[in-house]
From TrEMBL:
Compartment list: Cytoplasm
Pathway where this protein functions: Cell wall biogenesis; peptidoglycan biosynthesis
Binding site for ATP: G112, S113, V114, G115, K116, T117, S118
Organism: Ruminococcus intestinalis
Gene Ontology MF terms: ligase activity
Protein name per the record: UDP-N-acetylmuramoyl-tripeptide--D-alanyl-D-alanine ligase
Pfam family, one: Mur_ligase_M
Domain Mur ligase C-terminal residues, every copy: 320-434
Length: 448
């Protein structure tokens, strides 16, 4: 990482440095919250979790090479310096923000109700054609994950793509203060976290908090097909750049052909330019994500060849529209998370596959007072699209089963004994629900 001394870190977080004064000028090698990841000259964050208290591991971290700890109470045997703070979680946000300021590079902040991660991966694939690019790993998109992502930027980072996830008002402001995006990308304003945000207008308000803390002269790249985002006509005195499938957008698509697991063909258009690409993904919604990445790529100076190569270098991550071919079934493992918008998009993708289609769908959480109606409408969408069999799992999903005319099971344990008899050899099976439903168990069962 760039040079970041203990003295700078203590000043950044307003902590009290305790220990050998001569070590204040020591530069740290990394910031770690996991005692198993300590390296020589690491800074250890002692965080008190639900099951484990990081303060219990400070001495072990010192022994393993940590040069300093950030902590809320003094270690019992402080053989090395420590920085005493009121809250380690609050301190790491301030430390992350201070480290971000050491970089004068394109930093893309990405958010939205659907497609944050796949758009982040597409942006990474495109920007990597020109720059040494840093990106959010895994699910590190919250108020702890974002500063850790910033603090993990190597010294030679030339561009960064930071995913920003929220569930309540004020969170995006705190994330954007740390990230200070030079480009803000918003994908879709959907029905998620409505128990806190109320409705889609609330989601729009919460997501666009990002704009207040964007860097000076930042650019704003928004999905113009979204009825909420398309109402944003000016941000900080600047007209947004709109992307989407509709020709009204600055970046739009033509000649879309979804060949299921054969990839998605499309012409990506802007100005007088038309880029013919093959996107290595199964969903037509990936065309919109590609357009967002191309728009950002143009802002960052990539040429047409780099843009095409970048889009075609995209790789899916984890349980997000990941196609698994087994001897008996084609499984679409999309069980990382779910809301009505993303489930309907996955259903649209499923019906592009040939042969019999099956959707195993579960509860979608945090939808607020209209949760049952949203589940029912999602089921109706599956029925309208012609999914051959819908299997709904979970108390909320009973409404989904009613809407689709499908089968309902109270939980995974009651489904699994029947599952093989419900399926046929050659089926394409979509598996999707909120992460807490643990639908990866169903994927493992089908693979096994």
């Amino acid at each position: 990482m760039k040079k970041f001394t203990l003295e700078e870190i203590a000043a950044a977080c307003g902590g009290k440095y305790v220990g050998d004064e001569s070590l204040k000028s020591t530069a740290i090698s990394s910031v770690e919250r996991d005692s198993r990841c300590i390296k020589e000259n690491s800074l250890f964050l002692a965080i008190k979790g639900e099951r484990v208290d990081g303060h219990d591991f400070i001495e072990k971290c010192y022994a393993d090479g940590a040069v300093c700890a950030v902590c809320e109470k003094a270690p019992q045997n402080p053989t090395k310096p420590y920085i005493l703070v009121d809250s380690t979680l609050e301190a790491v946000k301030k430390i992350g923000m201070a480290y971000r300021k050491k970089f004068d590079i394109p930093v893309v902040g990405v958010s939205g109700s659907v497609g944050k991660t796949s758009t982040k991966e597409m942006l990474y694939a495109v920007l990597s054609q020109k720059y040494k690019t840093h990106k959010t790993q895994g699910n590190l998109n919250n108020e702890l994950g974002v500063p850790l992502t910033l603090l993990a930027m190597p010294e030679d980072t030339e561009a960064a793509v930071i995913e920003m996830g929220i569930s309540d008002f004020g969170e995006m402001s705190r994330l954007a203060q740390m990230v200070q995006p030079t480009v803000c990308v918003l994908t879709i304003i959907g029905c998620c976290h409505l128990e806190n945000l109320g409705d889609r207008n609330g989601v729009l308000k919460a997501k666009t908090e990002m704009f207040k803390f964007a860097s000076e002269n930042a650019e704003f790249v928004l999905n113009g097909d979204d009825d909420k985002l398309s109402t944003v006509t000016e941000v900080n005195g600047k007209k947004p750049i709109f992307f989407g499938l509709d020709r009204k957008n600055d970046y739009y698509a033509e000649n879309i052909q979804n060949n299921a697991d054969g990839g998605v063909l499309a012409d990506l258009c802007f100005g007088d330019t038309k880029l013919s690409v093959k996107i290595p993904a199964i969903g037509s919604y990936m065309v919109s994500n590609a357009l967002a990445a191309v728009a950002v790529g143009k802002l960052c100076g990539l040429n047409d060849e780099q843009l095409i190569k970048g889009v075609e270098a995209y790789k899916t991550v984890g349980s997000r529209a990941n196609v698994i071919n087994t001897e008996d079934y084609k499984i679409i493992d999309d069980c990382y998370n779910a809301n009505p918008t993303s489930v309907m998009a996955s259903i649209d993708t499923l019906v592009n596959f040939s042969g019999r289609t099956v959707a195993i769908l579960g509860d979608m959480k945090e939808l607020g007072t209209n949760e049952l109606e949203m589940h029912r409408k999602t089921g109706e969408h599956a029925k309208e699209k012609g999914v051959d069999l819908v299997i709904a799992v979970g108390p909320l999903a009973k409404a989904l089963a009613e809407g689709s005319g499908g089968k309902w099971y109270a939980d995974i344990d009651s489904l699994l004994p029947d599952l093989k008899s419900l399926l046929k050899k050659g089926d394409t099976v979509l598996v999707k629900a909120s992460h807490s439903m643990q639908f990866e168990r169903i994927v493992a069962f089908l693979k096994g």
